[in-house]
Amino acid sequence: MQKIVIATKNPGKVREMAAALSALPFDVVSLAEFGELPDAIEDGKTFAENALIKAAYYQQQTGCACIADDSGLEIAVLDGAPGIHSARFAGFHADDATNNAKMVEELQRAGVSESAADYRCAIAFVDEDGAVLTAEGRCDGQIKLTPRGTNGFGYDPYFYPQEYPGRTMAELTLAEKQQISHRGKALKVLAQKLEAGQE
Length: 199
Ligand SMILES: O=P(O)(O)OP(=O)(O)OP(=O)(O)OC[C@H]1O[C@@H](n2cnc3c(O)ncnc32)[C@H](O)[C@@H]1O
Ligand SMILES: [Mg+2]
What we know:
Maf protein; six-stranded mixed sheet; 5 helices; 24% strand; binds inosine 5'-triphosphate
């Protein structure tokens, strides 16, 4: 069975990517199997560029087929910020808590208690021989200043997806999030492309 590496250092993404790929006939492993690898340099201008940069970089580092994800939150009243800078919104040493605090601060500065927002995800797969497959997904909703729930990761406690009025992404089960999320949708498309390649 071909080995595929889930090439991300974000444990929340690993969980969602592993779940979405579990039914496929591949030996899906995490980056942890390869020890401490230096971070990829995510200097692309789009989610798609960064996903491909990471997949190609980790494919080189591991010698195995890799799947990478680049994703983020776009908030309408902040003109689409934090966007591709979502992981480092609060600065170089940012984590989920400081990024969320920064987001709340920016919304308050803008004088609003909620805003339309969307999550975006680009996925890239780079095979052992360099062949590339890509997929994208989007999830629309609202950001509100009242956090709820402990599932998911990142901005999920503040993101109210349009499919579940009154619940945040952090109040959904993994299966519910996969059905509607940017990553779930992108992974579904990628899984179909991977399966088609197996035939
Ligand atoms: O680059 P890798 O190693 O994959 O991990 P990362 O966390 O740095 O990932 P990104 O560079 O793609 O940044 C994405 C950020 O966007 C946010 N994000 C993406 N998808 C999310 C989701 O499903 N729920 C909540 N926040 C999400 C979260 O803050 C992530 O850290
Ligand atoms: Mg990153």
